[in-house]
Amino acid sequence: MGALLTAQGFDVRKHPDPNLQGLDPRNICNRGAAGAGVQLERSRAVRVTLFESLTREERKQSKPRLKVFVDAVARSLEEESADPVILSIDT
Hints:
Number of strands: 3
Strand content: 15-25%
Helix content: 25-40%
């Protein structure tokens, strides 16, 4: 997943603290049939590039960058990985 987001200019990292990597089996991302999922933590800086503003009302108005982000995530999910993926994403 990280490679496609990185190719679109997003800074993608795995959190250095294992306790914050979303690996707990009780994490909702890990409770599906596969026992693994994807959790994306987007920084404020990234969210500002995706929406007109971060207020509840203005988050309804996206910027073109949101489509780039969503398309990269969708393509990554199509490639499917058996490993849980927890990424911190920044611009």
